[in-house]
Write a structure and sequence with these properties.
This protein is an alpha+beta fold. Helix content is 16%, strand content 15%. Strands 1-4-3-2 form a four-stranded mixed beta sheet, with helices on both faces. It starts with 14 loop residues before the first helix and ends in a 6-residue tail after the last helix.
Amino acid sequence: CSAPATGPIPASCWGCALQIGCPILPPITVAAVHGAADTVVPVGGGAGPRGSAAFGGLANPPLEQTLATFRGIDKCPDQPTTTSGPPVAQRSWSCTAGRTVSVAIVGGAGHQWPGAAPPGGNGGAQTLGAGAVPPSQVLNATDWLWQHLRNSRSR
């Protein structure tokens, strides 16, 4: 919160920041990738198994609430301009001043980075803990985010 957001940012980093009143200078481009099966930061909001302590005592707001906040700031239309279905549900809104709000919800993915290399033999990446699910490979989140943010006018 020390400085207002002026560039393109992923919405997932701002869900709780919005709850504590961090300033946002509209309009900004937002792109969010979320696992539909994420239990750490649930799509529907809440504290997850680690409790609200992970977010400074705040429960994570629902993803749709966070997106609605940004769509309001960016003066987006009610209906998305592009959509696609499973296994990756994507929506994108074309908003004022060339800004966009986009989201990709990866079916079956939890709290991992979609498209990341699975652990083991990948240059020292962290190993998965017992019972953890490897990252989904149905979407490369890095490429997807870059595609949605690189042409942003929010610079």
